[in-house]
Amino acid sequence: MGVEIERKFLVSHIPDNLDNYKCRLIEQGYLNTNPVVRVRKDDEDYYLTYKGKGKMNREEYNLPLNAEAYAHLIKKADGNIITKKRYEIPDGKGYTIELDLFLGDFSGVVLAEVEFPNIEECNSYTLPDWFIKDVTNEKAYHNSRMSVMTKEDIEALIKDSHVN
Question: Is 30 known to be catalytic?
Answer without folding.
Answer: yes
